[in-house]
Amino acid sequence: MRRLVAVLGWVSVLVLVAAAVLVRLHGVEPTAAHRSTPPSATTPAATGPLHLLGFGDSVMAGAGCDCDDFLRRTGDLLERRTGRAVVTVNDSANGETAADLLGDLRTDDGFTAEIGAADVIVLTIGANDLGPALDDWVGDACERSCYDPEVRAMGSRLSAILAIVDREKRASATVFVVSYWNVFRDGDVGAGNYDRGYLAWSDQVTRDANTTICRTADLADATCVDLYAPFKGADGTKDPTPLLADDGDHPNDAGTALIATVVAAAVERRGSLG
């Protein structure tokens, strides 16, 4: 009997030693109720800075506002929210048309190199292509049959721009196209500078232009970012004057901050932060 007890004692010791070895080597406890809680599943954070690139007109360039442009503010918001450094390159220019930008992308290797280095690409372009329609409206009238050819031509140029961007960008890069609250002057300035009926007419041109812009973006697998509703409400009845600079054509500090908030939210929803 004593011999049996001794054998059992040695067996117990061996079991305890084996258990200790398992814990040290594999972190596994051989208990009756084996722990099955998996390690926390985390997605490794992207390393290195996020490269944010913008092309566009005076809205993106920050004209009319003694403040940081909306692209830089978008980068600042993304950096604060994610903790990831953001490098912002703004290649916009006052008065830029889609025709101008298309020509630049076709001839400037520097621009295409920047596209290839970018993680997120934002475009605000097309309003200045419609300037002749406003001249026609002021001179006499310009109903849809008058301005629609210019809207369609702008859409064709935007499609060509997005094709170049898609060809030159990295597969992981995402593209955003920002629409307009008004392609011309708006608010109190717009109402005061032009004849009665101007605000309704410019609103219709803007809606048609935005439809073309967003449809073109969708076809190119880019994300259209709506600014019409944030500035004027979904039904267009909200007065945008508090968000506009003194020229009635560009966003003021509050308007620029609003655009940055909307664009940053779109970038986050698209999952463009790595």
TrEMBL record:
Ranges for domain SGNH hydrolase-type esterase come to 55-257
SUPFAM superfamilies in alphabetical order: SGNH hydrolase
Q: Which superkingdom does the taxonomy of this entry point to?
A: Bacteria
InterPro entries the record matches: SGNH_hydro (IPR013830), SGNH_hydro_sf (IPR036514)
Q: Which CDD domains match?
A: SGNH_hydrolase
UniProt-listed Pfam families: Lipase_GDSL_2 (PF13472)
- This chain belongs to the protein called SGNH hydrolase-type esterase domain-containing protein
Q: What is the species of this protein? A: Microlunatus aurantiacus
